[in-house]
Design brief:
single chain, about 425 residues, mainly alpha, 16 helices, about 0% strand, elongated
């Protein structure tokens, strides 16, 4: 069956057309049957032919009145919520502005430390909300103090005074927190002072001291990146100065000074390849020079009897030329010549000169057992003149001054 109004199919027993919503009245094609009259089988086709069907748009179901009422109430509820929020915010703002905790922080930030301890004791201490608020505000103010100090808006003394004001309140929590902040401030002050000193040293061309000062600038310091950049420049200038200063030394003293200078620089810049190469070059040249001097002057010193000078030169040369066979052979020859000289003195009964040489030799060649034994032997067998012998060890006997002439009973003296 179909609705004669919209043409939609209608099942038997339905009261309303699913297409147009018109009420369907059961009957046989009466003129007052409504838009949704249902026809009996056989009549449907005939009715469709006789009556044209004009489709119409489905009608919207009627709006719910309850929904409209809810929509009208929504703005009222929203307005009430906003009023409550604003009221709560105003109350909170009033509480914040008039709170003792804020008064304390406000006074400290302005440098007014009068009565803050009493205010804390009376209105903040043991009041949980006020203590919590003070902790938060003090933490924020502390950060501001440090930032102002970094920016040099306040001096170290002013910053320290503000932090100490919180410590004097008597709060254990603040004492712990601000005790650490005080250390941070001290460290930051040391860093900033080091940077200023480094700048002066850099301008004076004292790159070694400037590097040391720049290295003391901490990462928390706003000058840290600039300090790192300046230190890099110092390193380049310092290294160039050292390499230029230690180039081509001429004598032993200049070599020793150059080696010492480069060693100090290498300690400061341990990973610098140029300094390491220069140090190795200087040490090699210095060792070669000492060896050459010892070999060139060895025979001359032995002929002149300058054994102390020779052994001193040999010792220094051997220290930087460890295991060198030429120097070892020269040392052996010098020791043999030294012993022979002493023996020649003994052959000539020149014991005084022999002992003098032996004492000098054993002082220079402490490890030479031959010289040590020979010195002991000579000292034990030195000839003594009879006129030098003592008849008695008694001073009384030798003086004769205290001796008296004595007579016996018969007159014998």
């Amino acid at each position: 069956m179909r609705c004669n109004y919209c043409g939609a199919e209608v099942k038997e027993g339905m009261k309303y057309c699913p297409g147009c919503g018109k009420e369907i009245q059961q009957g046989k094609g009466s003129s007052d049957h409504g838009s949704g009259t249902i026809f009996q089988p056989g009549e449907e086709q005939k009715r469709e032919q006789e009556t044209p069907i004009t489709p119409r748009s489905p009608q919207k179901p009627p709006k719910n009145k309850k929904t409209k009422k809810k929509r009208k109430k929504a703005p009222i509820i929203l307005t009430l919520v906003l009023v409550v929020i604003l009221a709560a915010g105003g109350a909170a703002l009033t509480f914040y502005v008039k709170s003792p905790a804020r008064k304390i922080v406000s006074r400290i930030s302005k440098g007014d430390y009068s009565d803050i301890e009493q205010l804390y004791k009376n209105d903040v201490k043991d009041h949980v909300i006020q203590e919590m608020l003070l902790d938060k505000l003090a933490e924020k103010d502390c950060a501001t103090v440090l930032d102002d100090f970094k920016a040099e808006k306040i001096t170290y003394e002013e910053a320290s005074e503000k932090l100490n004001a919180y410590l004097t309140l008597g709060s254990k929590k603040l004492e712990t927190a601000f005790g650490e902040q005080e250390k941070t401030l001290e460290s930051l002050n040391s860093s900033m002072e080091a940077y200023k000193k480094a700048e002066e040293l850099y301008e004076d061309g004292d790159y070694e001291e400037a590097m040391e000062a720049y290295a003391q600038v901490s990462e928390d310091d706003s000058n840290y990146e600039e300090a790192q950049s300046k230190m890099s420049q110092c390193i380049d200038s310092y290294k160039a100065e050292i390499l230029n200063k230690t180039e081509n030394p001429e004598d032993e003293q200049e070599y020793e000074t150059a080696i010492q200078t480069v060693e100090v620089a290498a300690d400061i810049l341990p990973d610098d390849e140029d300094l390491a190469n220069r140090l190795a070059e200087l040490k090699d040249s210095y060792a070669a020079m000492l060896k050459s001097d010892a070999l060139d002057h060895g025979t001359q010193y032995m002929n002149e009897g300058k054994y102390e000078e020779l052994f001193a030169l040999l010792k220094k040369a051997q220290e930087v030329n460890e295991g060198d066979s030429e120097l070892d052979n020269l040392e052996k020859s010098a020791e043999d010549a030294y012993v022979k000289t002493v023996q020649d003195y003994l052959t000539k009964d020149n014991y005084d000169d022999a002992i003098t040489y032996l004492k000098s030799a054993t002082r220079v060649l402490e490890s030479n057992s031959t010289l040590t034994e020979l010195l002991q032997q000579v000292q034990e067998n030195v000839p003594v003149k009879l006129c030098d012998l003592k008849i008695s060890e008694s001073d009384r006997f030798e003086s004769g001054e205290e001796l008296k002439v004595m007579e016996d009973s018969v007159g014998n003296i």
